[in-house]
Amino acid sequence: MYKKKWIAYLFITPMLAFFIIFLFYPFIVNIYNSFFDYESILDKNPRYVGFDNYLTMFTDVKFQRSLINTLILIGLVLIFQVGVALILALLVNSIRKLAGFYKVTFFMPIVVSATALGLMFNLFYDYQYGMFNQILEIFGGEKVFWKDPSILPRLYSLIVMPVIWQYIGFYFVIFLTGLASIPEDLLEAAEIDGGNAFQKVFYIQLPMLQNVTRSVVVLAITGTLKVFDLPHIIDPMGYPSGKMHFLGTYMYEVAFQSNAGGYAAAFAVFIALAGVILSFISNSIFKQNKDL
Fold first, then answer.
1. Whether residue 216 has pLDDT greater than 90
2. The pTM is what?
3. Computed from CA positions of residues 226, 229, 234, 235, in that sequence, does the dihedral angle turn out positive or negative?
4. 274: CB partners within 8 A, 6+ apart
5. What architecture is domain 47-285?
C-alpha cells in the first residue's frame, strides 16, 4: 500500500479540490474585486480604482475604530479566554471525581449556536426583565440600563463577555488533551522528589504544553480577527455611530448595507493578511519545542 502512492493521492484529491474551489479560488477572486468600485453587489461593470479601496480603508474613521476594538478584543481573548481555559484544564486534570461532569459543562457553550447565545445574552441585559437586573434587585440594588451608549466601556464589555465565554470550552478541551499526553512518570518522579502541585504545574506541565499553547494562541488570534456573529446579534449597528464595530461587523455593514463590494473585498484581504502577520509574530514569540 505504501509503495502505491496513487492511493494516497486518491484520498487527498477530494480535500484538495474542496480547498481550491471553496477557499483558494474565492480568495483570489476577492483580491481581484478589491481593485474595483462596485455600485452594488450585482454590478457587472465595476469601475477600476486600483489601490483606492485600501487607501480609503486606512483613512476611514470607522475602520480605525473597528481595528482598535478588534486588537483590544484579541488582547482580552488571550488573557481571559485562553488563560481561563488553561486554568480550568489544569484544575480538571488534577481531579478524579466529577471530572466528566466538568468537561461536559465547560464545553457546552461550543455546542450552542452563536445566534442562540446572542439572544440569550440580550435577554440577560434586558432592562425590565433581564437576569442581571433581577439579581441587582434581589440584593437591594437599582436597575441598570446595560446598553447605555454613553458608557462605552460598559457597552464594550457587554459585547466582549459572551465572545470570550463561548470559546473557553474549546481551548479548555485542547489544553486538557495536551495535559493527558504528559507521561505520568514525570509527575510521579516530581512527587518522589518532593515537588508540590504548583511546582509540577510550573516546571513540568506548562513547559510540556508549549507547543499546544502555541497552536491555541494562533487559533485565538485568527478566530478573533473574523469574529462576527455574537457582536452583530448583540449590537448589529455598532451603536453608537459605529464605535462598537469590529472588523467583521463593519465589513458586513460596508458590503450589505453600503453596497460597497470592492471596499468590503479590501477589508477581507486586510483581515487575511493581518491573520498571517499576527500568527507569524505569535509563532516567533512561542517558538516550537521540537523535543516534545
1. yes
2. 0.87
3. positive
4. 225
5. Orthogonal Bundle (1.10)
